[in-house]
Structures are given as structure tokens and as C-alpha cells.
Amino acid sequence: MEPLHMSTCANLLQELKRIYAGNELLIIRNLDGSVTDDEAVIVYLNSLVDEKRLNQHIIRKMNLDLRKENGPTNEVLLNSLFTLGEVSILTEINEIINHIADAHFVVFLKGQAEAYATKLPGFETRAIDEPQIELNVRGPREGFTEDLQKNVGMVLRRIKSPHLKAKSFVIGDESQTKVMILYLGDRVDPNVLNELCHRIDSIQLDFLSDSTQIEEWIQDSTFSPFPQILNSERPDRVVTAMNRGKIVIMTDGTPNALIAPSTFFEMLHPSEDQFERFYFANFLRIIRLITLIVSLSGPSFYIALTTFHLEMIPTPLLMTFLSAKAGIPFPTFIEALIMEVAFEVLREASLRLPRIMGQSVSIVGALIIGEAAVQSGIVSRPMVIVVAMTGIASFTIPTYSTAIALRLLRFPLMFLTALTGMFGLSVGMFVIIFHICSLRFCGVLFLDPLGTEGFRKSVQKIFLPPVRYRGRLKRERNESHEPKRQSHYFHGKEWD
């Protein structure tokens, strides 16, 4: 819609009525009770505006002013608006429509060439609650909601530095969704910031309903199964990321914030590590690295050993495998495929069922189906154990999108291993590692800075040092006056 310039409020109101014709949500209030010659008219959407406050504080006072002898001036009427906060002056019909859709009520005054809008939201929002996915034992218990202002406020409460900067965007031709990026100006890489702003500004969507659409639009490798942007519903994790020079993207209506640029090892480190003793946190990080490998290659490794490389299995263990395999009509690959598909179906069913029933279906269903499959001779007991251990290992990955990528890549590895044994598994793992090394976002490598800043700093990105040494290393960097690390790769125009 092209901007329409109107000469008076009467023309603006007439055009607004034409656009909203047939929409019963639009409320038009004539303040002086007259239908033909209104001194002032208020227009709003009754599902968005707090009508109770509007009637008590605005309409009632304006009607009293209108009944005064000789009538009030426009300045007197506008004083009632300024008691509620900021007043926007609108001269174009597009601006009026956008403000009405954003929980504003618009006032048209007789004889004026512009309209006046004030925000007065009346819809309910979800209260701040504990995160549902990123649970922890120690640390803060509050998580983001669908209200952008609440989410920004939770970040501002934790960072009181004047270096905290914010930029706003409006994405979606129809939805007009507000998006805000937050960063620390003294820590962020300016090249990454400029490129990220350029990509967000280039998004062309009719409706923006979730931050996932932003993530898919601005990432470098669209068809990569690995997420290149970290998402979190925890304010403490967002603040920690900003302290490391990251940029946070918040979307109105979404309880998840995007953290960019993100690296591979950051996907394996939950926020809870910051609230545990460093030796226990590092122990858990080692466990996660092991379970990552098990989750990705566990069934494939078992298929390779029992199908092509029996000589690698100790004799007592081999006899156990052969006795369990006796009478099974399917090859090992088909066994693994059946159990993996069944496990994924149970996992998906547990997510879709009500919370009370979901846990029962996932646990009891897995036990019953696994035991029934063994008793009927469809699969062997070792295969059930391998698939169960693989599924449990995938739950230790703190980032849900990374765990999904590992579950997805597990199947092509099984196919390769079923064809060529350990050679196929090695080729598949090499391709995955090569792909991870090639990923980048806004010039930052997915494995950056592993191996590029020396052994000491690379280890610090994987393992957590004690708090006092973390502070000492930070002071050393500040005192050395090191220049900011520039991006390895940059494209796009400079952001104004």
C-alpha cells in the first residue's frame, strides 16, 4: 500500500473507514455524541486496547471538557492524552493503520491535519515462568515470554553498562513484527554487526511468526542440518553470550532469543555450567563430548562390528552376540533401522500427547515394545541395548536443534556402514567433520577460534577455567590493548 497523504482528519477518518469496512473489531467513538459534526473521534481495535482505562482516563475527561461553556481548544483535549505517556503525531494513513494494529488508540480532532496516537495495550500476556526446555539445578529460574518488552527488560536488569546498544527492525509486510538486536558496543565485532544488520534488513516476508524464520533467512548454509545460530529461552545465557561479544536477536511473540554468531562447542555448553564448580562442569563437558559421539555413531559402529569386523570383538563377547542373534530373521542393519524408527516414533508421540500421558507412553511404550520385539524374535537384545543407549545419549545434548541434527545424520551413517563396514563409517564421519569445518556465519567459522588463537585459548573455549582465572584472563586482554578480532569473511554493504 502506498502512503496516502490527507489534508484533514476528516479525510483520514474517511479513508480509515473505507479500509476497515466490514471489520467489526474497529471501534469508532464520537466524543460529543454527535454523528455529523464531531469535535473529536477515537478509533481503536477493541481486542487490543484496554477499554476500561480508555473510558476512565481519556473518554470521560474529554467528554467533560467538551461540555464546558464555549467548548475546549485542541490543546486542552490533547492534555488528556499526555497523561498516559508518549503521543505520536500521524499524518499518513499507513502510519495510522500500523499504530492501530500495535494496540494504539488514535484521536482525530476537528480541524487538525494530523491524528494523535497513544499506546494502551489491554491484551493478556504470559507471566514470567521457569524455562520449559533449558532446565537447570542451580541458577536463575526465569525464562523469556512472548512479550518483547518484558524480554528486553530482563536483559537490562542484568546488564547496566552504558555500552549496551539496541537496534529495532520491523519485519513482515502484513504482520509488522518487531525485532530487536542487543549487543555490547565495546565487545562486538563491527564487521559481524554490520553484516547481520544488513541480512536482517533484507528479509522479505509477508508474515513473521517465529524467530526460526529469521534464523533460516540469515544463515549462510541453508541446507546444513547443523544450526549456525544458537537459540535460548534463558536471560542469563543471553547475558553471558553478550559478554563474549555475541549479538542477541529478539522477536516479538517468540519466547526464544537468537544468539549469533555461535560456534560448535557453544552448542554443547548449557548455561548451568556457569553455576557449577569448574571441575564438575568440565567433567560434564567431557561426558557430553562422549555422548555426542555415541549418539551419532553408536548403531553404525555396532553394525560394522557384527557384520564386517567380527575379528575385532573379543571371543566371549562375540559368543554372546552370536547366541543372541540366533533365530533373528533380519540382518543387523534392518534390526537397527526398525528400532531407531520405533524410538523416533515413540519420542514424537510423547511430545504430542498431554504432559501427564507423554512420559508414560515414552517410557512404558519403549519397554513394552522392546521386550515384545525381543520375545517375538524380530530384534536381538544387544540391538535394543545399543539403540536405547544411543537415544539416552542424544538427550544429554543441551541444544535441541543440535540433537535433532545428530539424530538425522545417524541414518545415513547406518546406510554407509551397512554397505562397506568401518570404511563407510570413517568416510561418513570425515564428511561430517569436513562439513562442520566449512560452516561459517557472517564470517565467523563454526569451529572458530579452535586452533586459530593458540592452544591455551582454544582449550578455554572447550573447558571452563576457575572464576578467578577467568577474571584474570579478561584483565590481561584489556591491559594488552589487543585489537578486535576481525572476521575471516565479510560481504554485504556497510550498515548506516
In summary, what is this structure?
Helices cover 49% and strands 11% of the residues. It has 496 residues and is of the alpha+beta class.
What summary fits the major beta sheet? 5 strands, antiparallel
Reading the helices and strands in chain order gives: HEEHHEHEEHEEHHEHEEHHHHHHHEEHH
Rg over CA atoms, rounded to whole Å, is: 30 Å
Shape: elongated
**Spans of at least 5 consecutive residues with low confidence:** 1-6, 472-496
Share of helical residues: 40-55%
Please, how many domains?
Answer: 3
Class by helix and strand content? Answer: alpha+beta
Quote the distance from N terminus to C terminus: 26 Å
How much strand? 5-15%
Total number of helical segments? 17
Mean pLDDT: 82
Number of strands: 12
* Order of strands across the main sheet: 1-2-4-5-3
Protein name: Spore germination protein
Region (Disordered): 474-496
Family: Belongs to the GerABKA family.
Keywords: Membrane, Transmembrane, Transmembrane helix
